[in-house]
Design brief:
The protein is of the alpha/beta class and 220 residues long. The chain has eight helices and ten strands. It starts with a strand and ends with a strand.
Length: 220
């Protein structure tokens, strides 16, 4: 069923500043889509609305056939935590928790951390962090911290993965590593991946590129 946005708009403040204008798009299940455009084009705002982290001023967003704009807060919270994973430019790891504890954080919300311990260890091994399960974020490099954050986003086996400039704070080698992980999430694990990036080379690694300018889709 994927993600269907219809006539989505967003405005902030008084007097209103319009950030998105009449955006409609359809993202199929398992598709890897990049959102590109200059700073201020509205790509991150669109990502946050598609992922339910922000509300649209007008329009609707359906995910897996359900209109998230009409969900009650508690229903949306559960839907988000069970179906979605999030990766940001900054990893937002918890300094007082070890690597494996950070990965298991989303599972702890549903008291599933013991059940998903094996998956957490598998993800850390897959991302080259097998020997660092019990290290704290400060003991990891920037690239390792970002891979750890991606592992955390995948612990609940989400159907949809949203990434906002996931390589923005990384060097070229680590950025390519992160991009390969995201591509594998789509091609091998059949997740729907929507990624905001300013890097044209990384944008081309997605199956489909959507370019925004002044809050509108200008090319696909």
């Amino acid at each position: 069923m994927g993600i269907i946005a219809k006539n989505v708009g967003k405005a902030f403040g008084k007097p209103q500043v319009r950030v998105l204008n009449n955006i409609s798009l359809d993202v199929r299940d398992g598709e890897f889509v990049s959102l590109t455009g200059k700073s201020g084009a509205g790509k991150s705002t669109l990502l946050y609305i598609l992922s339910s982290l922000d509300d649209a001023t007008e329009g609707s967003v359906e995910i897996s056939g359900q209109d998230i704009t009409k969900m009650e807060p508690e229903e949306l919270y559960r839907f988000r935590n069970q179906k979605m994973g999030f990766v940001f430019q900054f990893h937002y790891l918890i300094a007082e928790l070890t690597a494996i504890q950070n990965v298991l954080m989303p599972a702890m919300k549903f008291k599933e951390d013991k059940k998903r311990r094996g998956r957490a260890e598998m993800l850390l091994e897959q991302f080259g962090l097998k020997e660092k399960l019990h290290r704290y974020p400060r003991q990891l490099s920037g690239g390792e911290q970002q891979r750890l954050a991606i592992a955390r986003s995948l612990i609940m086996e989400p159907q949809y993965l949203f990434a906002d400039e996931p390589t923005g704070a990384l060097d070229t080698t680590n950025a390519e590593s992160v991009m390969n992980i995201l591509r594998d999430c789509s091609s091998i694990q059949k997740m729907t991946v929507i990624m905001v990036t300013h890097d044209p080379d990384f944008s081309l690694m997605a199956q489909r590129q959507i370019r925004l300018a002044d809050g509108k889709i200008i090319t696909e």
